[in-house]
Amino acid sequence: MTDLISSIKQAEITHSLTESEITSILKDDTVNEILFDSADKVRKKYVGNEVHLRGLIEFSNICRCNCCYCGLRKDNSTAQRYRMTFDEIILLAKKAKDFGYKTVVLQSGEDAFFDTDKMCKVITSIKTLGLALTLSIGEKSYEDYKAYKDAGADRYLLRIETTDKNLYQKLHPSMSFENRIRCLNDLKTLGFEVGTGCLVGLPAQSDKSLARDILFFKKLDADMIGLGPFIPCPKTPLQNEKGGTLIKALKVMALTRLLLPDINIPATTAMETLQENGRLLALQSGANVVMPNVTDEECKQKYTIYPGKAGLNNTAQEYKNSIVKKIESLGRTISQDYGFHKKRV
Fold first, then answer.
1. CA distance linking residue 23 with residue 252, whole number of Å
2. What is the reported pLDDT for 345?
3. In whole angstroms, what is the distance from residue 337 CA to residue 44 CA?
4. pLDDT given at position 1
5. How far is CA 323 from CA 40, 85, 155, 295, 310, in A?
6. What's the rounded Cα separation, in Å, for the pair 8 and 139?
7. How far apart are CA 12 and CA 121, in angstroms?
8. Which of 41, 108, 193, 267 could form an S-S bond across to 223 if both were Cys, CB 3.0 to 4.6 Å?
9. Mean pLDDT computed over 116-127
10. Predicted structure pTM score
C-alpha cells in the first residue's frame, strides 16, 4: 500500500504511471480516497474550479450498428425510434443558448439519413448562433470528418470503449477495431478537439485492460475523456451480465486526470444513474465538465442506450437548475467561456 501511495503522489507531479502501477491501483481499494484527493488537486491546479456545461441534444436514436451493450442497437426491435428534423435540432440549439450553454453536443446513433450535406447544414446553422459544437455521431470517412471541420465543428467525441481488440470485436459485430483507431487518428489530423473514453466493468474486462485504456488516452493525447460504468440494457446480448461499479469508474477517471492533467473530463450521466450523488463524487475526483440534456422529454425517454438514465423525468430547465445547485454546493463556479482544452506546459 505504501508503494501505491508513493506512486499516486509521484503521479501528481510527473503525470506518469506504468501499466503495472495503474493495474495495482485499480485492484486496491484501500488507496481510493488518496487517489481521488490527488486527482482533485491536479484538476484544481490545471483546470481550476470552473465547471463547463455543455447542452446535449440527442437528435436521432436510429443506428446501423449492433453494439452488444447498447439499447439503440439495430436489432433491438422494441426501441421506439425517432429522428429530429433540421428545424427541431436548431430550435433545441437555440434553447441551449438561451439556457446559457456555450457548447452544444450533437449526439445520435449512426443514422445514415444524416449524410454529409445534411450534417454540414446543421453544423453551419448552429455555428451562426455563436456556440462551440461537439459532434458524437460515430465512425465516418476522412472526407466526412473534413467536411464537418470545414463547416465549423470544433470537437468530436468517439469513445474507443475498450482497447482490448478481442473484446472490442466481440462487443461490436461487423465493426473493425482498426477502423475505430483510424477514425480517431483522422480526427486528430484534421485539428478537432478529440474526445474518447471507455466503458468500465464490461464482461471479461480486466484491470490490466483498463490500465491499457488509460495509457491509450495519454498516447492519443486526447482533449476530452468521457467514461462511465457499464449498465446492462434489456433487449441486448449483455442484458443478464453484471454491471460495472461507480467506484471502479471513478478510479479510472481519477487515474486519467493524473496522467492527462489539463484535459476536459465530464461527470457522466451513467455515474449519476448508479448513485444519486455520482456526479458530485465525480466532480470531487477529477471531473470538470457536465453535459445537461436539453432534448425534449418525449425523445429523451426513447434514447435508451441503458435503462434508468438520471434526469429522464426532469425538464431541461429543472435539469440545469439541479446541476447548477450541486456544482455550487461544492464551492465550484459555472464557467462563462467555451471550455476549449487549454494545454499547460
1. 10
2. 61
3. 17
4. 61
5. 19, 28, 23, 16, 11
6. 35
7. 44
8. 193
9. 98
10. 0.97
Q: Which residue has the cell 466526412?
A: 144
Cβ burial 281-310 (10 Å sphere, 16+ → b, else e): bbbbbbbbbbbbbbbbeebbeebbbbeebb
**Confidence at residue 302, expressed as pLDDT on a 0 to 100 scale:** 95
Q: Report the distance separating Cα 300 and Cα 260, nearest Å.
A: 32
Q: How many CB atoms are located within 10 Å of the residue 68 CB?
A: 18
Q: Nine-digit cell at 298?
A: 418525449
Amino acid letter, 336: Q
* Main-chain phi, psi angles of 235, to 5 degrees: 65, 30
Please say if the pLDDT value at position 236 is more than 90. yes
> What is the distance of C-alpha 133 from the center of its chain?
15
Gyration radius of the chain over CA positions: 19
Burial of 80 (0-12, 13-18, 19+ CB in 10 A): exposed
Between helix 207-220 and helix 246-259 the angle, nearest 10°, is: 30
Per-residue CA distances from 38 to 122, 218, 257, 278, 328 (Å): 41, 18, 9, 18, 21
Rounded Cα distance, 225 and 161, in Å: 11
Q: What count of residues does the chain have?
A: 345
Q: Can you give the chain as a three-state secondary structure string? A: CHHHHHHHHHHHHHCCCCHHHHHHHHHCHHHHHHHHHHHHHHHHHHHCCEEEEEEEEEEECCCCCCCCCCCCCCCCCCCCCCECCHHHHHHHHHHHHHCCCCEEEEEECCCCCCCHHHHHHHHHHHHCCCCEEEEECCCCCHHHHHHHHHHCCCEEECCCECCCHHHHHHHCCCCCHHHHHHHHHHHHHCCCEEEECEEECCCCCCHHHHHHHHHHHHHHCCCEECCEECCCCCCCCCCCCCCCCHHHHHHHHHHHHHHCCCCECECCHHHHHHCCCHHHHHHCCCCCEECCECCCHHHHHHCCCCCCCCCCCCCHHHHHHHHHHHHHHCCCEECCCCCCCCCCC
Give the pLDDT confidence of 46-71 residue by residue, as tens digits: 999 999 999 999 999 999 999 999 99
* Residue closest to 289 by CA, chosen among 344, 332, 229: 332
